[in-house]
Design a protein that fits this description.
Largest interface: A-B, 26 and 24 residues
Order of helices and strands of chain B: EEEEEEEEEEEE
Mean pLDDT of chain B: 93
Largest sheet of chain A: 7 strands, mixed
Mean pLDDT of chain A: 95
Radius of gyration of chain B: 14 Å
Low-confidence stretches of chain B: none
Strand content of chain A: over 45%
Radius of gyration of chain A: 13 Å
Strand content of chain B: over 45%
Helix content of chain A: under 10%
Distance between the termini of chain B: 41 Å
Number of strands of chain A: 11
Order of helices and strands of chain A: EEEEEEEEEEE
Number of strands of chain B: 12
Distance between the termini of chain A: 37 Å
Largest sheet of chain B: 6 strands, mixed
Oligomer: heterodimer
Structural class of chain A: mainly beta
Shape of chain B: globular
Shape of chain A: globular
Chain lengths: 110, 115
Amino acid sequence: KAGVTQTPRYLIKTRGQQVTLSCSPISGHRSVSWYQQTPGQGLQFLFEYFSETQRNKGNFPGRFSGRQFSNSRSEMNVSTLELGDSALYLCASSLGEDYTFGSGTRLTVV
Amino acid sequence: AQSVAQPEDQVNVAEGNPLTVKCTYSVSGNPYLFWYVQYPNRGLQFLLKYITGDNLVKGSYGFEAEFNKSQTSFHLKKPSALVSDSALYFCAVRGSGGSQGNLIFGKGTKLSVKP
């Protein structure tokens, strides 16, 4: 079966710009969660969506937002990019206790 | 609050020797525990999980983990390490209550297996 697809794989943006990342979950998985991975902070939870509703949110500023569509695909948006937003952004698709991660989007802010 | 600790930033092992990557956790209620592996510039690959049942869990690529409730530990083990096992390993616990949809990760342990 197809895995979790994240697009794009790499992005380079300038400070102050905004960016949208996409995650297509495994078919049948209704929960999608997002994580930020940096060398200093490790893996940090951003938010989780289930059936188009944000079910849980981590401790990130309001510049980070997300949404989920009726087909369970999810997007996350970061506005007014800062250098510190440079990271690997991972999404996970889950069903019950099974969590499957995508390959991530590497965002570099210059 | 739930938390996971991986006390070692790096573990070095010779090929063919057994390996252990340590993990301790703190949760309210019954823990749902996971191990993932990450290769450079890649996402997380699932190795194994403990939900309930036998304390010894067998997973992918010959890895296993032992759940110890009294010590709140979930150490990852492999009887004979391979050079190709060199990677970053993450222990995680599923959130409880309103956080059941997300995983809480340890900081990761870099495993280096030398020939």
